[in-house]
Write the structure tokens for this entry.
Amino acid sequence: MKKTLIITMAAITLFSCAEKPLKTPSIEEFNYKVEEFADLGILRYRVPDIEQLTTQQKELLYYLTEAALQGRDILYDQNGKYNLAIRRTLEAIYTTAADKSSEDFKALELYLKEVWVSNGIYHHYSGDKFTPHFSQSYFENAVKKVPVENLKLKGNQTVDALLAEITPIIFDPNFLTKKTNQAANEDLVLTSAGNYYDGVTQAEAEAFYAKIKDTTDLQPISYGLNSKLVKVNGEIKEDIYKVGGLYSASLEKVVYWLEKAAKVAENDAQKAAIEKLIEFNKTGDLKTFDTYAILWVKDLNSQIDFINGFTESYGDPLGMKASWESIVNFKNIEATKRTEIISNNAQWFEQNSPIDNQFRKEEVKGVSAKVITAAILAGDCYPTTPIGVNLPNSNWIRAAHGSKSVTIDNIVEAYDEAAKGNGFSKEFYWSDAEIALVEKYGTLTSNLHTDMHECLGHASGKLLAGVDPDALKAYGSTIEEGRADLFALYFLGDKKMVELGLLPDNEAFKAEYYSYFANGLLTQLTRIVPGNNIEEAHMRNRQLIANWVLEKSKDDRAVEIKVRDNEHFVVVNDYELLRTHIGELLALIQKIKSTGDFAAAQNLVENYGVKVDKAINEEIRDRYKELNIRPYKGFVNPIYTPIFDKKGKFLDLKIDYTEGYAEQHLRYSRDYSSL
Ligand code: ZN
């Protein structure tokens, strides 16, 4: 952090006053907090060192940020087929209502803010439908008062027809209640509101893909990744996302900006990757997508990098269809030295992993890891975002060509800075010793955990020959995330970390162990509405790990839960024993993954990762409420303004951090909406 400050200060002197260079505000002067509502705190993030990029890099960065923002509507539609109409209608009321002081209006404003956070009417994390706290009659009247041209009605749709379309989904609590249903023994496709299937049952969808999947292909495409499965006249077919296909209007604009980006690419490897992505957007051909993914994973010398397209499949109950997302970023060269040490030793970690030899990779290929600075978050990475990403997801590409893994440093910085002094550890950690431990080492060990989860964890192990990568179905994401977490946890406690200079001493890892178990067993429950189960894959995996190890510790008491003044706390009595249990679970989960053991995956996830103790759940939420901490964070992006000369030559990029939350979403809806 200090390093950034010094570099920034030095850079200023290089410019004359008249040129007004970009200047990243310091941590101290930066205002991270934007606003809070419901269970959300909205933050800003800095983009340190953007001023260090060359003019060409800034131009490239700008085009990629535009390509990123153009996909926003796609995600809304993927998250539910009524989302776009609902968002537009709410925004029209929000901006034109005469009375903005009524309780109903305020409730509508809150609902709209939640819709923006979640890119639709289902909670971004739990997948539960939001409850509107304004009445249906208020809503209907408000819609009728909006000037018709503001409603963006489709074709010759009437206002009444619009209302008939969207009021049941907003107000009927029993109609399509879940974005992605994971409940065992239900038709996950029919009961999920996600818009990846239409008129198709789970059995029909599974049969469709079973039929077209070539199980002898050692380099299988990612079946179903970029399409909606629909039934037309009784026939099931894929509606492909591509220029000229589904979502064409958005993808055309994405392509327009990618074409500009390709022209100013940093080098030929990057240019080839961008051009292949353009081709994929135009053809929708999944073989082309794999070629793109390989070109992208091999582009390691560029400083600027990006994700743009249909990427993660968490939103599909069958785990095949990908939601649209984008992150544009550049490498943090100083901090990347940390991850380079990790990736350079990937083979050592693989060889020393406590798993059965037959599931081990003989040779770990091309695991590259870097620390990045995000310049824009978009699609499924906005406004809530991951802090680490590892791609591509295709198993065979990862095995043959490696993967790229990133930790997003400036987002972590925003989280850390915004959390300072919020009283969390004092409330939830057992004693001063744990508080001091986490305070001293917590930022470092949690960053390392992210690095290792992404770079080593996801890249480790192998499937036995002939095992279907989708064999674990709805449990696949949880098992995979659990595997990556366990790998990171296990090795954080290894002396090798100190040897490599990644950790200062053999105490440091305890900070991550303690906070991980406190989170997995207790504090993450703040995100669960009492009475509900855990649905989200990462939350499931964290509880699964913590619960399984807690049960294993029954006799040796490596970790336990203690009650003091009617409040629950996690106490770790023996960190080395705890690590042994982590290793045992890693071996078990690797076996399940490698052999595609669906029954064992189901057993593990359902028994340890899903159910919640309602009383403890309520207690945790009360304690959070007392502290006034919102359990989720979302972000606003900076605004980028390019400066061109009279002939259209790119000169510089201005960055502005002052935009508000509602302001930003309304601007995006105005300038980046084509569906
Ligand atoms: Zn992961």
